[in-house]
# Entry
Amino acid sequence: MKVAGVLLAAGQATRIGRNKMLLELEGETILRRAARRALVAGLDPVLVVLGHEAERARAELEGLGCVEVLNPDHARGINTSLSAGITAVPADASAAVVLLADMPFVEVETVRAVVARHLQTGAPVVTARYGDATAPPTVYHRSLFRELVGGEGEGRGRQVVRRHWDQAELVPVPPSELADVDAWDDYDRARQRVEGEERR
# Structure
């Protein structure tokens, strides 16, 4: 079965004051890093939802083979990007993995693990569990796509997970992978972490 990837990367990053997707870690932008890992994990196709500074973001994806999806309503919240990405999933994909581009430490193995659990169990929802928290990457079976489409603001993906919690599968993931980049302090910590890993 074919599983697509929906990488959400359209936000304005108002807390940082510039496009955080274009900040660099380990010599590549956060956006390119996330898209490349989704591709290496075997998701097909990888749909990258762009919005804020879409042209600059598009240049960062050059040569990767991703499918770009433009969300003109990105300023109205992440739910609009989720809707745009899910709507663009091709008909031959049985499920989609939703990923957040601003989670730079999600490993390729984690993406593969949630997909494998979905294929093994047939569960309509499979999500990563970081200690006590659940977060993307999250697999949604095509039968749930309608529930992911529409609306503004944020949280629709979490709502769908909760709605189908009794059927959901959870994949344990190291809590260290949960780190995201929402503010400058987050980015500084991410750079320090990468530099620390390089020195080992």
